[in-house]
């Protein structure tokens, strides 16, 4: 039994390019983001991976990434489950603001604390802890049972919703998670043991040509 779980952050969005806090706002992918998603799908196909079910968020950039990846793999017709539980963290009052402008307004140290601390939310928004409080129950109740039943599972979501998952899968602490960056369009490939812990993990190298 494979117990395959692949996590992929959406390709570059228009607001990633503009250095804006995005959260639950809904910008589309850039041309580069589209190519990142397609390349991820081509790489997975070239390595012999396939999927039985996909999970994604309620936000367009993740859904489009999921669809582009599956399209490159000739898997557009597989079951795809969408849920707000996998949405990016809500940045509250920071949403739509340029990150440099936010640093000028609140100070670099405060903005860094909002972005990278585990449990300090921005004004009106979510911390990573808050994000994990919705992501992890969904993972346990909906995603993990499919993996453990032998389905090959793709999760196309967001930097922080995936950080919440990786923190658990990789046994990271509230301190070490602060330094984790998940690149756009770069799949993280996990195989799980029978006890649900990680057997192996591999990461697509961005400079591979496929």
From TrEMBL:
CDD domains to which the protein is assigned, alphabetical: HP_PGM_like
Pathway, per record: Carbohydrate degradation; glycolysis; pyruvate from D-glyceraldehyde 3-phosphate: step 3/5
Documented EC number(s): 5.4.2.11
Site residues (Transition state stabilizer), renumbered to this chain: 158
PROSITE patterns xrefs: PG_MUTASE
Biological processes per GO annotation: gluconeogenesis; glycolytic process
InterPro entries according to UniProt: His_Pase_superF_clade-1, His_PPase_superfam, PG/BPGM_mutase_AS, Phosphogly_mut1
SMART domains cross-referenced by the UniProt entry: PGAM (SM00855)
Residues binding substrate, per UniProt: 9-16, 22-23, 61, 88-91, 99, 115-116, 159-160
Superkingdom of source: Bacteria
Any one GO molecular-function label of the UniProt entry: phosphoglycerate mutase activity
Active site: 10 (tele-phosphohistidine intermediate), 88 (proton donor/acceptor)
Keyword Ion transport: no
Assigned keywords, A-Z: Gluconeogenesis, Glycolysis, Isomerase
Reactions this protein catalyses: (2R)-2-phosphoglycerate = (2R)-3-phosphoglycerate
Pfam family of the protein (one): His_Phos_1
Subunit structure: Homodimer.
Function: Catalyzes the interconversion of 2-phosphoglycerate and 3-phosphoglycerate.
Family the UniProt entry places it in: Belongs to the phosphoglycerate mutase family. BPG-dependent PGAM subfamily.
Name of the protein this chain belongs to: 2,3-bisphosphoglycerate-dependent phosphoglycerate mutase
Protein encoded by which gene: gpmA_2
């Amino acid at each position: 039994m494979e117990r395959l779980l692949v996590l992929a952050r959406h390709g570059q969005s228009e607001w990633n390019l503009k250095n804006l806090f995005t959260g639950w706002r809904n910008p589309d992918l850039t041309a580069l983001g589209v190519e990142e998603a397609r390349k991820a799908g081509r790489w997975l196909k070239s390595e012999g991976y396939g999927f039985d079910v996909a999970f994604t968020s309620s936000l367009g950039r993740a859904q489009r990434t999921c669809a582009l990846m599956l399209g490159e793999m000739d898997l557009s017709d597989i079951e795809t489950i969408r849920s707000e539980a996998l949405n990016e963290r809500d940045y509250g009052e920071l949403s739509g603001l340029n990150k440099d402008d936010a640093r000028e307004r609140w100070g670099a140290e405060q903005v860094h604390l909002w972005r990278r601390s585990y449990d300090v939310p921005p004004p009106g928004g979510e911390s990573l802890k808050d994000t994990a409080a919705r992501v992890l129950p969904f993972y346990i109740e909906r995603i993990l049972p499919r993996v453990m039943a032998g389905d090959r599972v793709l999760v196309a979501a967001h930097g922080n919703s995936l950080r919440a998952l990786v923190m658990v899968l990789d046994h990271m602490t509230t301190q070490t998670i602060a330094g984790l960056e998940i690149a756009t369009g770069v799949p993280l490939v996990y195989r799980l043991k029978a006890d649900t812990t990680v057997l192996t993990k591999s990461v697509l190298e961005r400079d591979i040509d496929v």
